[in-house]
Amino acid sequence: MLSRLSQPAGRPHLFAALILAAGCAATVGTALVFEHQFGYIPCALCLQQRTPYYLAVPVALVAAILAVRRPARGLAVRALLGLVGLAMLYGLGLALYHAGVEWHFWAGPAGCAAAGNADLGGDLLATIDRVHPPACDQAAGRFLGLSFAGWNVLASILFAGIALRAAFGKASDRA
Question: Which residues contact 23 (CB under 8 A, 6 or more apart)?
């Protein structure tokens, strides 16, 4: 297995890294558009679910750069893709937990009422009165039957699968 991990990185690693960077950026970008353009205020768990994406995008870009500039550095590229896969598995856990809270399968965190998108300029007291963050157990919306957390489960599975297969899959799987 170690010999397989130290083989030079190739085009499949480059493509996987680029797909991960673009896909993760598009996913978190979509969340930001829903927040800032359409007024969906995220709960504390929603904000936590963005963290793996903020990590995955630059790590995947570094993996892509290494795959192009130093194809002999296969171990480094695979390690970075593995890190993206681990981040997405962590994101999957957060998304599953949040979806379970929304469906009332289990209780959410006690202090789940933090919000972003508050304009702290001007009259702060009036702003505080206007902004009412959602509770973590109330989905901001459902699209095709899934909440944002539910869609994040699917995205996290997809991105974790791509990253982990590129990092640890057999060379014949990627040919």
Answer: 155, 158, 159, 162
Q: Residues near 83 by Cβ (< 8 Å), separated by ≥ 6?
A: 55, 59
What is the model's pLDDT at position 173?
A: 46
Domains of the chain: 2-173 (1.20.1550)
- Tokens found for residue 42: 């995220």
d(CA 107, CA 52) in angstroms, rounded, equals 23
Tens-place pLDDT, residues 73-104: 788 999 999 999 999 999 999 999 999 998 88
143 - beta bridge partners? 146
The Cα–Cα gap between 23 and 42 comes to 21
DSSP single-letter state for residue 138:
S
- The ranges of the chain with pLDDT < 70 are 1-8, 70-72, 113-133, 170-175
Q: How far apart are CA 152 and CA 144, in angstroms?
A: 13
Report residue 96 as tokens.
Answer: 């599953």
